[in-house]
Amino acid sequence: MLCALPAPAEGWQPAEIRPSASSVADALAAYRNATGHAALGYENRRETWTYVNGTHRLPVAVAVRGDDVRVDVTLEGATYSAGRFGGVRWRSDANGIAHRTRSDLQSDAIDRVPDALFGFRPQDCELAGETPDAWVLADRPAGDRVHWLFIDRKSGLLVKSVLREGKVVETATFDHFATVYGVVRPQHWHVSDSNGVDDGIDVTVDSITPGAVSSATVELPPPSGRRVFAVPDSSRDRVELPAHFFPGGHIAVDVGLAGRQSEFLLDTGTASITLDASAARAFGAVVLQHTTIPAMTVGALRMEDVSVLAIPFGGRVSGILGYDFFFGHVVHIDYRGKRVEVLTGAAAAAPFSDPSVTVLPAGVEEGLPLTQAEIGTAFGEFALDTGSPRLYVLQPFARRYRSEIDARWTRLAERARVVRYLEGAIEVVPYRAADFHFGPQHYRNVDLGVEVPSGAPDAIEIPFDGIIGTDVLQQFELWFDFDSGRVGMRYTG
Description:
The chain contains seven helices and 34 strands. By secondary structure, it is mainly beta.
């Protein structure tokens, strides 16, 4: 798995925090008094900003409608979007494919918009402590990571926010405060991270204009805006891809990058098409971890001006065919026959109506397919991840069913082992469970890993219940239909 879904990292906090004799009410009262009261109409507005990253100046358009917000960043003629709608954060890359970001631990530098700029709910906050100059609030919005908010004790203003995304710690430092339509707010801030890949972002507010903003402006972009890989010959209803199957179930696919051949991992657990940063630089500047490939081919499939996330990861493969690749067609993986092909919707109708194929709903809103599975009498939401090698039960499931695990599962070792992903690490202890139900199959005495709290500096904490990796998936013939939110599966043993 190369993208995991994070929950608030309860065991981590910024290092400089110390205990405080104050209360959360003290900090919130100071903040309210300092920031003032917005003028009528300010809750709906448009803003323009400028991002400065090294020598690059990027125009930014912002739309705010109450608690909802959308931010569009233009980079080399391509538009990247991010926002918050109905309390859910989302992003859309320049391929026009959007997803919620609760699941996105790929440290996407281009959408690092400090959420607290647009307000936070006091009821979600607790006082974590203080520094010599500030109170520190832990803002824990439902379904999101912890936002650490630093409230200056002299001015009462929000002067810094910190967000941990996997192993990357993102810090926004605010300054140049001014009163705008009754609200004291920063006109400049700097966003930095701990990965050392880019120079961070200096952000300047250029204009703020109150006015009507429609709901459609700030909600997740509709599917109609997607750009997908397509077969130039529209008469072909299926195309086999040049694929290589490795021991353990990983699949690599030959990919052409503007005429250069590379090998990419086919990974349902990654939220973007991803290219190793060193390889990406051959195609031009990498700005805020993004670049555009003029043309990309996967077998007979082709797409122009492909937006890719460019991060360093090295290894045998040059890149990852993640979330974006799976739209516009059905991806068929036949592990036994060592074959990968893409089908049109019409061609896929036959396997999805075949009585020997079990069809499971698979929600893909989080950037990877999630479906139900059962272990004994416990059940939960598991990711189907062609990039992860094992069956894992994660901490939300383990906490919810702790008594059943202790009573009915067999622990196979005392010590945990570290499992490392691109975004960070988890620690798991091996167990054996008597029963595992997944799709059409019922397994007896299945071995799996149960996640335990980790003290690793790059630890990630994942909020869904588990991962079904290739040790299970390679026993099936699979049809991934992201457009319809379903997966077909036929057991092949």
